[in-house]
Design a protein that fits this description.
This protein is α/β, with parallel strands linked by helices. It folds into two domains: 260 residues, TIM Barrel; 133 residues, Jelly Rolls, CATH 2.60.120. It is 27% helix and 21% strand. It contains 15 helices and 18 strands. The chain has an eight-stranded parallel barrel, surrounded by five helices. The longest helix is centred in the middle third of the chain and has 22 residues.
């Protein structure tokens, strides 16, 4: 059977059970599949609720909200109402979606979120989605062993050193494999990736590998064509530090497809797929995983997100999606995993336009692309989530930033297809008296290519206002174009205005490449 190259993750909630007023109808449930009809999506990855509780008919697990008497969260209540009604009407959501997917020619893989904090009984927010198993067994948490910083993010996560924790997860998986005509199963290890006490990670890796092998055997024994997919952090060192050993899984042949994502989400699109060294890779450098998979039966898929959350744009444009997709294909991946695109819902023409080209890097090659280095956003401001930006500037201390592109600009210039190449850098807390130097791949960018835009004060913004700053925009000529692959931008503060105190810093770096449809064509 043909293996799917384009997988689509559906969380089962945001564009589905949250949206429809109770009592939800079978046809409304089927919309999760119908919305993908006619697209290049070949496999639907469908999330089983919250991970702690489920949104399908289960005896091995617990139904979302079954233990809640009074609901402080109306949307979580609606999910419970809709799931319960569908189950009682003999329209179990998981079965409805599975059968509809098969009717549309899609493969179907349920997704289990492997980890989440337990929460507190009677609380609001996340807690009302928790299970009795997690709420009543605090002794099975990582933090129960003590000797942990109280701020350790996995302190209230389930400790997979305990057989009871592994058994509870396995029972849910086994039940789905037995009761539903699925084509495989996905373990989502990257959602809240803390599985062992930090002092027990090395021993934990061996235990987790044995457990993954048990799941793999269950998948294959329930159907030889069924597949096990596993979502992991894209950096192998991050995996190992959490008790996950994807290289060993590949060596043992106990995983069919690894889905690589930036660690612990945060669901931000990052087009930068390669870096100068394996030792200091960017978040989405997948080359090491691709190399590790050679000689094995395992495929490597790259997760591609849509969320931008900048001050100007919420969801990625088609030019941004192309940039990320082409960078991934360039690394030799086997497929794409379309992750967290539910924020585009209700899906309109632009959504389908983005999907259409994804499997075809050759089609996307001479089309407009918009690359950027992820930075702080309205929702995510923590620097460790964005790796390179924001970056503080000190006098005569160059800030070095890496940007990856897949475009072969000389090739398309020879046939008259390049319209323009724009490099944009936003420096915050800078003034008209500061002097800065910009170098791309060691070559200084000349002043005659530069246009500055003064945004020291913004009365308004499309989405939210950022601090004061200037845009430095270079319309690059061929002698200053970026190269295919990795590019290094050096930003140097040569002289600082002596009358100001705020820290200047690089906040945004963007590279936009615009093509002509054909030689000497016009641009609309």
């Amino acid at each position: 059977m043909k293996k799917p190259r384009i997988m689509f993750y559906h969380d089962g909630r945001h564009p589905l059970l949250y949206m429809y007023e109770p009592t939800m109808q079978k046809e409304e449930c089927e919309a999760a599949v119908d919305e993908l009809a006619g697209t290049p999506v070949e496999a639907l990855m469908f999330c089983l609720g919250d991970g702690r509780t489920m949104l399908h008919d289960t005896e091995a697990g617990e139904l979302w909200g079954h233990n809640v008497q009074k609901w402080p969260h109306l949307i979580f209540r609606r999910a419970y109402q809709n799931a319960l009604h569908l189950i009682q009407a003999d329209n179990d959501p998981l079965r409805v979606i599975c059968e509809r997917a098969h009717g549309m020619g899609l493969r179907f893989y349920p997704t289990l979120l492997m980890q989440l904090e337990s929460g507190e009984r009677g609380g609001g927010g996340y807690d009302i989605r928790s299970s009795d198993f997690r709420l009543d067994n605090k002794h099975l948490e990582i933090g129960a062993k003590g000797n942990l910083d109280p701020d350790f993010p996995g302190i209230h996560c389930a400790d997979f050193m305990h057989q009871a924790v592994r058994d509870e997860r396995f029972a849910v998986i086994s039940e789905v494999l037995t009761n539903y005509p699925v084509d495989g199963f996905e373990l989502q290890f990257n959602f809240w990736p803390h599985y062992f006490h930090p002092a027990e990670v090395e021993e934990g890796r061996q235990i987790m590998t044995e457990w993954v092998g048990q799941v793999y055997e269950a998948v294959k024994s329930s159907g030889s064509e069924r597949e096990l997919g596993i979502s992991i952090p894209s950096n192998v060192e991050d995996c190992l530090s959490r008790g996950l050993d994807p290289q060993e899984w590949m060596r043992q042949g106990i995983v069919d497809v690894l889905i690589a994502q930036a660690i612990a989400r945060p669901e931000l699109r990052d087009p930068n797929g390669t870096s100068l060294t394996y030792e200091a890779p960017l978040l989405n450098d997948l080359r090491f995983l691709v190399e590790s998979a050679k000689g094995t039966e395992c495929r490597i898929h790259a997760a591609i997100d849509s969320n931008i959350d900048s001050d100007r744009l919420g969801e990625a444009s088609i030019e941004m999606i192309r940039a990320a997709a082409c960078n991934y294909w360039e690394q030799g991946i086997d497929g794409l995993y379309i992750s967290q695109w539910f924020t585009n819902w209700p899906y309109e023409a632009s959504f389908y336009e983005k999907l259409r080209e994804l499997p075809h890097p050759d089609i996307m090659a001479p089309k407009d692309k918009f690359y950027h280095i992820p930075t702080e956003t309205g929702r995510f401001s923590s620097p460790e989530l964005t790796s390179q930006l924001p970056a503080d500037l000190e006098v005569n201390a160059p800030v070095q930033l890496e940007l990856t592109i897949s475009d072969d600009l000389p090739r398309w210039e020879r046939v008259g297809r390049i319209h323009e190449v724009l490099l944009r850098v936003r420096i915050m807390n800078t003034t008209e008296n500061d002097r800065l130097r910009f170098q791309l791949n060691g070559v200084e960018l000349p002043a005659h290519l530069l246009r500055k835009i003064n945004e020291m004060y913004r009365m308004r913004a499309p989405r939210y206002r950022t601090g004061s700053g200037y845009w430095f925009i270079y319309r690059l000529d061929p002698s200053h174009w970026p190269q295919k692959g990795n590019n290094v931008l050096d930003v140097t503060l040569l002289e600082r205005d002596p009358d100001v105190t705020p820290q200047p810093y690089v906040r945004d770096v963007e590279l936009e490449i615009k093509y002509l449809p054909g030689k000497h064509f016009n641009r609309d």
